[in-house]
Design a protein that fits this description.
alpha/beta, Rossmann fold, eight-stranded mixed sheet, two-stranded antiparallel sheet, 10 helices
């Protein structure tokens, strides 16, 4: 079987307000799948999942959300749900065919808005990765604390690796931390995380200011839907999953054992198999 890495290419898409979005694409004639990472991550978070989907024949796109990775930083500090939603719609338009949306955390919020708010077309299936319509409880503050820490950056790659190891103590620390460079930028002689610092202080996710918006969107979702929850998630509780199921009665729910909020990173192989199993019936390649 061909190496999917050989087919990958970087594409640039004009998002909401003309902001440039970086998208890795594994093009094929198969059903399109668009992958959306969570806050503080990049398109590279989906590396193994994207490759597995490409091997199955899907036309895979993995995008950097605005203010993250190689996508543009918004001069107006607009990191609202509307902006993320409209960016996703721009990528869908560039793909040009109805697509499966796979969104983790913040990316899942954007995907849910696209799937549930008018015009609601172009969504072939929806996969929410450890996120629902419910505002998260205490776990979200831990994520925000990590993202706002170390504003002065790091002197070395090892220092950055130490910060990640402290934040994710349940994961084995890689012997070679060089892969972290995909998530860092060199600025003023120091290494900084790839996200726009204004992402935290700007107009970010609207879930707290309008908690009913995503509930209304969820109630309107008609596409086949899967919720993948880490059974040790600090963000999505079993009660949250049940609440989503009441709004989207046709949604399937899968729990991944041994996974926390970053499900794909904690149990990548099991996660990928769960998504492919779902798509085999809901949106065959």
């Amino acid at each position: 079987m061909a190496d999917p890495e050989g087919a990958r290419r970087l594409e640039l898409v004009s998002g909401a307000g003309g902001l440039q979005l970086a998208v890795d694409r594994w093009p094929s004639d198969g059903a399109p799948v668009i992958l959306l990472h969570g806050g503080g991550q990049t398109r590279h978070a989906w590396g193994e999942t994207a490759a597995a989907l490409a091997r199955q024949g899907y036309d895979v796109s993995s995008m950097d959300l605005r203010g993250h990775g190689d996508s543009g930083w918004c001069a107006r500090r607009d990191y609202s749900l509307d902006a993320f939603r409209d960016d996703l719609r721009a990528v869908m338009a560039a793909v040009g065919r109805p697509a499966v949306l796979v969104g983790a955390s913040m990316g899942g919020i954007a995907a849910l808005a696209v799937a549930g708010e008018p015009p609601r077309d172009g969504v072939r299936a929806l996969v929410l990765v450890d996120i629902t319509h419910q505002p998260p409880a205490g776990g979200a503050s831990r994520i925000g604390s990590f993202m706002s820490a170390n504003p002065e950056g790091f002197a070395t790659l090892e220092e950055a690796a130490d910060a990640v190891a402290a934040y994710l103590p349940h994961r084995p620390r890689p012997k070679d931390p060089s892969g972290l460079m995909k998530n860092l930028r060199l600025r003023d002689g120091r290494l900084h995380w790839h996200w726009d610092p204004d992402f935290l202080g700007g107009t970010s996710s609207d879930r707290k200011s309008d908690p009913d918006r995503l509930a209304r969107a969820a109630r309107s979702v008609t596409a086949p839907t899967l919720l993948v929850r880490g059974d040790e998630s600090e963000i999505v509780s079993p009660a949250d999953a049940e609440a989503l199921n009441r709004l989207i009665p046709h949604a399937q729910v899968v729990e991944i054992r041994g996974a926390r909020h970053m499900v794909a990173g904690d149990q990548n192989t099991v996660f990928g198999s769960a998504v492919i199993d779902f798509l085999t019936n809901a949106a065959p390649a």
